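sanity check this record:
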Amino acid sequence: MDSARDQGMRPATGPTQNCSEPAKKSTWRHGLCPLSVRSMHTFWMASWDRTPERMTTVEQMQQGLDLIYDRHGEVQGGRIRGFPQLWKLESTRDFDRIFTMHHFYPKSVTITIRYTDTWMWEHNEELHIEGAWGKWLVLPSSVSGFCIDIESVKRRKDEVD
């Protein structure tokens, strides 16, 4: 199975008996079914050359969420994992519309900042994150967990701890 880094989002691998056949066909065409809404959904806030070739955009996910809502009503659950480049994270006011999707009620959000997505990592400049983006972060009311993961290289471990 592909990892979340290899593709932006994938449908759940569990049984799909909650989808009627016609609904299943049209929602799976968009990569979603009620069970998949409860899965991990990965989004990339980065320049095109720093994202996977195959990924689901916010627009595509919204189409699937609309279909699911029309056929099944509100579906709770799910998790969001975002992989932003710092330039994108620090300049956003709407988090690329990830948190404003309709009919999506995630339980947790994890933002993962990879070492190569930090400022001037190629020149070993001090690791830092500007904090202004936190002022604009408005999570859906369904979110009960929020985490920031920072991935780094072993030789720079002390800067992260």
In short: The first helix runs from residue 21 to 29. Residues 4 and 88 are 20 Å apart (CA to CA). The longest strand covers residues 40-45. Helices lie at 21-29, 34-37, 58-72, 86-91, 157-160.
